[in-house]
Amino acid sequence: MKLLVVEDEKDLNEIITKELTVNGYVVDSCFDGEEAYEYLLHGEYDGAILDIMLPKLNGFETLEKIRSKGIQTPVLFLTARDSKKDIIHGLDLGADDYISKPFDFDELLARIRVMLRKKVETRENIYRCGELIINCNDYTVFRNDRLISLSAKEFQLLLYLARNKGLVVTREQIENNLWHFDNENSSNIIDVYIRYLRKKIDDGYDKKMIHTVRGVGYQLKAE
């Protein structure tokens, strides 16, 4: 997997590049938005780690330019600008994830793995989580070769969990992505559909795949 690191602080750029290389990635690096745009326009990258406060072109402008050219390289913002407004703006422009500085390197590696896994799976239009296979080409779901019949909304909810497998998604995130209704009803309806999915996905198996993180949300994981 080949990554581009775009960070104008040279010491931090070097540290990130070295750590990613040690972890098996092929890494190019640069220090400003214009250079990053040229790298992404003419090179083939599996993902980019992009600061926002960059010289020449900031991270938002860089992302907007590559997306306008149809370049869908996954982008993870790694930045000190962590206001909700900035996060929403970055995601709306087409970023795949967002980590604030200072950051934990193990978390960065985990988020990179999720980002790259999404890219591969989206290309195939098939999502896998352990024993579970979700095929968006024919809208089928299998667990251990057993066909699971889901309603359209159940399929959408499971697919959303699968696209974020290993990560905890909140009720608010589920609601914003799948439903548009009054807040007083949203939590109950989401809980109902989670119960439907659990019955169809987990009943009869010792290993449960759909987990509740109390007070936060839900998580789909293979182990």
Structure summarized in a few sentences:
The chain is α/β, with parallel strands linked by helices and 223 residues long. 46% of the residues lie in helices and 22% in strands.
Structure characteristics:
Rossmann fold, five-stranded parallel β-sheet, 223 residues, 8 helices, alpha/beta, 2 domains, Arc Repressor Mutant, subunit A
- The ordered H/E elements are EHEHEHEHEHEEEEHEHHEE
What proportion strand?
A: 15-25%
Q: Output the CATH topology of the largest domain.
A: Rossmann fold
Which regions are unreliable across 5 or more consecutive residues at pLDDT < 50?
A: none
CATH architecture of the largest domain: 3-Layer(aba) Sandwich
Shape: elongated
Question: What structural category characterises the helix and strand content?
Answer: alpha/beta
**How far apart lie the N and C ends?**
25 Å
- Averaging pLDDT over every residue, what do you get? 87
Give the helix proportion (percent range): 40-55%
User: Could you say how many structural domains there are in total?
Assistant: 2
Number of helices: 8
Strand order of the largest sheet: 2-1-3-4-5
CATH class bucket of the largest domain: Alpha Beta
Radius of gyration (CA) equals 19 Å
How many strand elements?
12
Q: Please identify the oligomeric state.
A: single chain
Q: Name the CATH homologous superfamily of the largest domain.
A: Response regulator
For the largest beta-sheet, the strand count, sense and barrel status come to:
5 strands, parallel
